[in-house]
Design goal:
mainly alpha, 4 helices, Rna Polymerase Sigma Factor, Chain: A
Length: about 120
Amino acid sequence: MDGQGWLAERFEEHRTHLRTVAYRMLGSVSEADDAVQETWFRLSRSDTGEVRSLGGWLTTVTARVCLDMLRSRASRREEPLGVHVPEPIVSHESGVDPEHQALLADAVGLALLVVLDTL
C-alpha cells in the first residue's frame, strides 16, 4: 500500500470524530463536511512523519479550520435570516457509547473556546 492510501485509511478512522467536532463548532452539517474536507487537503499536503498522534493532529487542524471559517463568516458579516438553530444530525447508532460521550464532551469544550474567542 502506498503512503497516500495508508494516510487515507487513517483519516477515515477519524472522520466521524472530526465531523462531530466541526459540526459542534459550526452548527451546520454542510459546513462541517467542508471543514473535514479542508482538513483532508491539509493532511495530504503535510509531512506527517513527525506526528506522534494523528488523531490529535487532525482534531487540532479541524478546530483551526472551523475557527477560520467562523472568522470569515464574521468578517463578511453573515447573519442567519432567522433564529439560528443548529441542523440536527441523524444518527443510526443505537445505545450510548462512553467513548462517543467523551468525544462529544471534547467537542463541546472546543465550541466553548470559540465562544470565548469571540468575546
